[in-house]
Specification:
The chain is mostly helical. It has 50 helices and 8 strands. The protein is globular. The N terminus is likely disordered.
Length: 925
Amino acid sequence: MSEHRVGALFLGRQEQLSWLGARLKRAANSEPQVVMVDGPAGIGKTSLVRQFLVGLGPGSCVLEASGEENETHLPYAVVAQLLAHVTDDLEPPLLGLDRSLRPGAAVPEPVAVGSGLLDLVGRTQDRAPVVVIIDDAHWADTPSLHAITFALRRLRVDRVMTVLVLRDPNEPRLPPGLRRLLGDDNTLKVHVDGLGLREINGLNTALGGAPLPRWAATRLREHTRGNPLHTKALLRQFPAEVFTASSAVLPAPRAYEQLVRDRLDLCGPGARRLIEATGVLGMSAPLHLAVRIGAVSEPLDALAEAMEAELLEERTTGDVPTVAFPHPMTRAAVYQGLRPALRSQLHQQAASLADDPAQSLRHRARAAPGPDADLADELAAFAGEQAGTGAWSTAASALSAAARLATDSSTRARWFLRTMEYLLLAGDISQAAELEREARALAPSTEQHYVLGHLALTTGHLNKARDELTAAWDSCDAGTPVEMAGYTAEQLAWVHLIQGDGRGAVTWARRGLEVPAVKRHSFLRDSLAIGLAFDGRHDEAVQSVAHLPATGPRTTPAELEGLMARGLLRLWEGNLRAARRDLDQAAAAHRVVGLPMLTITSLAFLADAEYRSGRWDDAVTHGTQAVSLAEDTDQTSTLALVHALVTPPLAARGDLDAAGRHAVLSGEYARRLGDVNDAALAAVALAHVQVVRGDHEGAIAALRLLLDVGFPHRAGLDEPGIVGWRPLLAEALVRTGQLAEAGTVLPPYEARSAILDRWLDQAVAARCRGLLEAARGDADAAEASFRAALDHCARGEPCWEQALSRLAFGTFLRRAGRRGPAVAQLEAAWEAFRRLGADPFLERCTTELAACGRSMTDHQEVRHVMLTPQELTVANLATRGLTNRRIARELVLSVKTIEYHLGNVYAKLGINSRTELASRLTPEE
């Protein structure tokens, strides 16, 4: 259907067009917009969007793509379509992204592609607002959907308007992060209903029909429910008398397939062959390819005839002429109307002409009249090759086809289950979950239990995961593929880690390491080291990762597996600088070549290391990034952890609303998981918020459950440096006068910290001991403890604990009447709090200094009290010499957002250059 003829459908739909126009104006003013256009097939969604695009002025920057049912398995097919409209030079990973469609090609992570899209729109929007159109988003490939979601969630002040056209916003193929974005209050939701009376009359006039009375048009609308395609079909097929004959029953519109077949029958042989060949190729195809498959002798005449019949449209992709169906229903009608023998013949011809082996195999599979063992084996082998490169979506599609063509039921079941595994690894969790019922109907097997266990673990059902995975392990025998035992042990080790069972994690990790190496990156070595640490065997844990090089590339399993665990061991022993380096490298490497789950976990613990180090700008940035990635990739089993670890720096800075939300969400996810280890982390997160609020009774209520001697897996819970609940509880008990109980909570922590000789935990323990002894009235013991806390800090690294110890010691000295020494401690603490932006603690310290007769309001530098955490992060990176573009890549934001934050920083600080910024802003130590 041509654009001019489509216009008749928009009589009366000006309101929807005006909504789109208003959102475009807001996007032009640096307010990024997301628009969802939804409605059933054939209702006119695409036509509405095309009409909107017709109204755009010259010079508009429009990036268009459309999902295709037959291309859902091709990684980044939709993103590649968007890039076809870009004239600027591209950079990796966008440069050469179309190579991901080829078999055997490496497939970049959605996070990397999403970051590239952010960079692209950042460079493009200066000339004009960027309008991104994703038609048939429900058929977009999963990697593209994840990358687009990642980019959309990070647009802040960008001149970008994104329109997603789909049938149902609850479509399970859409990533959960995208569904949340579409449901957001700020998203414009345009539901396309059926045609109104004026539109029906306008359509009738455009088709040359006699005017219809209002009652006749009403009757027709009720009969068709306003569906444009059905309404148009009736108006074409029947004269006006049919609709104005009040006694007659209106005829049902012919099945849409029959309408298309009728119009197809009117076409000449050449046009018909062109339409049918295009139908086999998909919603659209290069003209020359459809011509060869259909053996069309006069292609231009055939195309003109097909367009006149409104069965095909002419489009251009780059320099390649393309033919496309005006609507998916049209293509479906053509394809379903093909005689089986002709359909098979056309698919065979398409297979012989395909340059891409994957496309050739797909056409051969469609051509097969029934089970075909040889072809099924080819598809399975191809799926294995794709899995080896990390192209999980392509592997899943190929293996699903192989399962359908398998000649024996056992092979079919095995390949079906492996398809589910590939879907899980691809992040297509909703699609894998849809297959669960069918998987459970299969005969029990090792692979069935394993896949169901993996699905349960990914979706946060830990008890079910443990039961299924244990059953998988127990059913392994001599005929079980060796790698299946390794995969099962790997998942079971992770289940035990999540639940805080270090000993169980060690057992399963060692079992997994005893079998030959698995064919993909594994977290068995990470699980082993962390499990040993949970079990109090720190030296063994360190030895288990001794194979890792100190520095260098992290691309092979030997260079990467265990790196996150080494970072955690260093964090817990107080080697903060080395911990930050390891965790940063682990997050970056797993994002490119490893496991998405470990990317998220590494980022979360990196935020924890930065919090303890007093690098709070980075802690907030990495913590919120971990939360975002976990949500975007639907990694439910990590959400309690990431929400818990981003809470402390936010609370300490006084952002109690945000900190409280994260703490509550951590608790909710921990309860959903039924996991006591995550429940402990959530309790500590909530206690941090309550302590800053001054609600020490609330902190005690949050932490008291951890005193239960029956609490499962206490070894990791009581190990210093891991959860850190005892000092929080001891301090809260002291603050509320419950000294006897505080005296029983603190000693186990003191003793274990001394045995391990961990300077940071010894400093924390000594500060809490000082608070307790001061409350008991033993001034000498209190002073000795406070001095010991500062001595422990002096033998370590710069840390947040040092400022807390100075505040506690200074407060003790002031109340003892020793103002001079008190001022020295309190001023040092005040300066640290000011630098960190620890507003609640800064306020307490200022009060103590005022009681000493010292005013700290007359200071030249005011940093964190003026700048938001995001502005501080951007400003700190700018002082390190990073360009706006490099800052954008580091923070995974657009360049426009970085410019916006820097503009705010300059305005708030009254400066005009980076040179002035460097002089006003002291980088974090």
